[in-house]
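Hi, here's the filled form for the chain we discussed.

Project: internal
Contact: R.S.
Residues: 252
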Amino acid sequence: TDQGATWSAPVTVAQDLSVGTDDPNTGNPVRDGGFLPQIAAGAGKLVVVWQDARFSGGLRDGIALSQSSDNGQTWSTPVEINSVPAVEAFTPSVAIMANGTIGVSYFDFRNNTTNPGQLITDYWFTSSTDGVNWSEQHIAGPFDLDLAPDAGGLFLGDYQALTVIGQAFVPFFVQTNNQGTANRTDSFVLPPQPVPLTLTRRITNAARPAPATLQLDAAARQRMHAQVQRFLRGEIPGWERFQAQRLKTSPP
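And the returned structure, exactly as it came back:
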């Protein structure tokens, strides 16, 4: 509140229980937005979205959302908002309109097949006026994520975002193309997408809470550990050398 001169103490929003994204046919990793939560502010509230596997008991990531109406002092219990919970959903972006409507965009594999030579992916936009009932629209795809560059995993890039212009959401995103290895991906922006009025919106799904008792088995914890390692390799230069040196100097 003083232009960054002083800061409040940190507040925990929620645990991040991401297991990351893999090709369900081959197990090849996807370099996604895990451990990179996105936050938006507007209309007197804060909203955070991120990848999280708590809703599936650690089997796969969905899109988690938590919101605050008291300037971040307290946060709602995370809920899952992607409409097809049986498939992996990843790399969410979030924005808030002046009237309080929340918009979230993300990728998922709902249209994928069992063909190990392809990873069919789509990009989706969903919006809500209350954070409970959501109305989904298809943005882009299907496209073959298996054509993306491999940079510690199939990597679309970091150029995903969602913003608001007037009374419309504007998504920015990347998808693969079929133009060969010289140009595997392109960035896109769609024209402003007005959100239908509440009375005419088609509700496609309701937000889902996590299980009342969250039990993560050893396999789920191992997937989370592997996702942490994958993230650090991608974000910290020289991480592998650091790990090798640490193992050399660790006591037996």
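Let me know if anything looks off before we file it.
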